[in-house]
Each structure stands twice: as structure tokens, then as C-alpha cells.
Amino acid sequence: MPFMDNILRFRDDAAHDEPAVTLDSFLGQSNATAVRIEAGDDARALLPYLDRIALVEVSFPKFRDGRGYSSARVLREAGYTGELRAQGDVLVDQIPLMRRCGFDSFAPEAPVDEAVLTASLARYEHVYQAAADAQTPVWKRRHG
Q: In whole angstroms, how far apart are CA 34 and each of 27, 42, 108, 119?
């Protein structure tokens, strides 16, 4: 289901469709190009391999578990440019925040309503803090 002129990708239109291996499996074999990070895994273990990974799938076992946001930001700030997919209990109102952390692909357990997503993404014109995306915080616009 294409959304927002390919700004976002969902599992059925994702750029990379190779099954992701666990972090432990990846570190043991090092030839996979897709890795799955579970909620308790340390994304920093992937930093030496970022140039060889096409997809990092980050598990969100429950919508209230925010560890995946940190994993995404660590990877993006370290220079990871491949597909970064949020998978699991991903709610439509979390997607704008997930995008700010660096996610560009989503595999939610429940269907996402395109109209609600569009409204969520357009809700706020300005941001108030720096993130992994390129948006300039409003305070920096005023003072910069």
C-alpha cells in the first residue's frame, strides 16, 4: 500500500524483502544483509557492519516499549543509510515520531488508515528538538 508518494514504505512495498536474521545470528555469520533487533538488543553491535546491511528491522513488541526509538537513532547518527523498519505493535500516531528517529519503513501488526496517517504527518509544521532527521528545530530558526 503506497503512502505519501513513497515517503514511507510498508512491508508490502518495502525496498528489501530478504528475511531478517537475529542479531546473534548476524554476528555469528556476518554474511546476511538483513538483521532483526529485538527490544533488548544493543544496536551498537551493528556499527562495524553498517556498510553491509541493507535492512535493519527493529521489533516493537508493545507500543509502549520505546527502546526501538533509541536503536533507530543510534544507527542513523552512526551513518546507517539502509532501510530501517519498525515492526510489531506500531500505532499510526507513533509513525511521525518514528520517522524523526530515522525509520523509513513500517510493518505494523494492525492496518494503518491512510487518511489518519496523512493527518498525523501533517499535524505539526515545526519541531522543537533535534532528531535523526534533517528538520531544523523552531528555536534554531529563531536564533540561528
A: 12, 16, 18, 31
